[in-house]
Write a structure and sequence with these properties.
It is found in: Cell membrane. By secondary structure, the chain is mainly alpha-helical. The protein is 79% helix and 0% strand. The chain contains 17 helices and no strands. Helix 2 runs parallel beside helix 6, helix 3 packs parallel to helix 5 and helix 6 runs antiparallel to helix 14. The chain is globular.
Length: 426
């Protein structure tokens, strides 16, 4: 759609369908932040082991990667809204089991059953949610829509950990997980009220077996030079940072003597960085271009990660974590928007699935290594090494097509071509 046509439409904030989706997912994000804090605290409270925290993160991450392989196929084959509702209801039921089981005492084994299934459902939901943006707004508004969604998610995540810390300290982490379960009911209700635009399907493409369809997305990803480089570099970055929150919680509680409430305050205030990143990403990308924005964001992430473990005060840890989350938000929204802009709609689910399942594949192993090393050598040594690795990822981007990708990736950039607009207007 041309910009003149967009100018004649109502502003994005007045789009009722997008607004309903926006509110529902923001409430769900606030609930997610309870589990984000409560699950590691449950394990640490029951076992006292940061390595056990890392193992649970790894098992859940592995389930997410496996789900990601076929999640894109499902998203491209079936109604995206229905899949998201099913994923929400699945997580509602499973997370609700945790506080019920904890009434009889700690049941750490249950987390190793519930969390992987919930993470698999969450991966399906995330793939569908990313592709749904193309069916909610016009292509000219994709980056703005992503920025607004991420900013609101992050704003909800500011309040979420603060409340989760209070709830966990007063009523226990299991109660905080119950709040997260309830949030999925709100998300499902919001999704029920909206309708997505129809997916544009290439009539000349015959349906294949699920693995073949997944590989179609992977081939598209690999043939795009910028997307290929992003996948490789982000695989290393995820390996280095997948267990970062576990190490952060361990550092605050073990090294700095903080409580559950302290951890909630750190994560809640640090989430302001995600808000800032989501608000800054669109103007930064317009001003500096995709490449410099992505590379610069990941370079700063490296310095922030290194500093967290070396920080000796809670305010310093909070500030550095906020910087890390800000730059993580900028880099993540940039790469997500790029995929949405250049991928044909009928392939978007599979390309997103291939992208995530590939670069998250090393995450579970990274979580195990990072948390084991933190327990053995201490958080400072681990975060210093991880931060140095993140900085090398950013430097690596300078020697790939990422560096040359500009502010308008669909126009005139080598190896990139625009995708057709998703759906129809109205």
């Amino acid at each position: 759609m041309s910009r003149s046509a967009v100018a004649g439409r109502a502003p994005l904030w007045r789009d009722r369908t997008f607004g309903t989706y926006w509110v529902a997912q923001s409430l769900s994000a606030a609930g997610d932040s309870f589990a984000y804090l409560a699950v590691p605290l449950l394990v640490l409270q029951a076992t006292g082991s940061v390595a056990q925290m890392g193992l649970l993160t790894a098992v859940a991450g592995a389930a997410s990667v496996v789900a990601g392989i076929f999640g894109g196929v499902l998203v491209d084959r079936y109604d995206r809204r229905t899949l998201m509702i099913v994923a929400d209801l699945t997580r509602l039921v499973l997370y609700a089991l945790v506080p019920l089981a904890w009434l009889a005492g700690p049941q750490v084994w249950l987390l190793f059953v519930v969390l992987p299934i919930c993470e698999a459902a969450g991966m399906l939901f995330q793939v569908a949610a990313v592709t749904a943006v193309r069916n909610l707004v016009d292509s000219d508004w994709i980056t703005e829509a992503n920025g607004r969604l991420q900013a609101t998610y992050a704003a909800a995540a500011v309040l979420g950990p603060l409340l989760a810390g209070v709830v966990a300290a007063r009523f226990g982490p299991a109660t905080a997980i119950a709040v997260n379960a309830a949030s999925f009911a709100l998300s499902a209700a919001g999704l029920w009220l909206i309708r997505l635009r129809p997916v544009r399907v290439d009539e000349g493409v015959a349906r294949q077996r699920p693995l073949a369809e997944f590989l179609a997305g992977a081939r598209f990803l690999w043939r795009q030079p910028v997307l290929r480089a992003l996948t490789v570099l982000l695989s290393v970055f995820i390996f280095l940072t997948y267990g970062f929150v576990d190490v952060l919680i361990y550092h605050v509680t073990h090294d700095l003597g903080g409580s559950e409430g302290t951890v909630g305050t750190v994560l809640g205030l640090a989430a302001l960085g995600t808000v800032a990143g989501a608000l800054l990403v669109a103007p930064l990308r317009r001003l500096r271009g995709f490449g410099p924005t992505w590379i610069g964001a990941h370079a700063i992430c490296g310095f922030a990660v290194a500093g967290v473990g070396l920080a000796t005060t809670v305010p310093a840890v909070t500030t550095l974590t906020a910087v890390y989350l800000c730059c993580l938000s900028v880099g993540g929204i940039c790469s997500m928007s790029l995929r949405q802009e250049i991928t044909p709609d009928h392939l978007l689910g599979r390309v997103t699935s291939a992208f995530w399942s590939t670069h998250y594949a090393l995450g579970p192993a990274g979580a195990v290594v990072l948390t084991w090393a933190a327990g053995r050598y201490g958080a400072p040594a681990v975060t210093l090494a991880a931060g140095a690795g993140c900085l090398l990822v950013a430097v690596g981007g300078l020697f790939t097509p990422i560096r040359r990708a500009g502010a308008e990736p669909a126009a005139g950039q080598p190896g990139l071509r625009p995708a057709p607009a998703g759906g129809t207007a109205g």
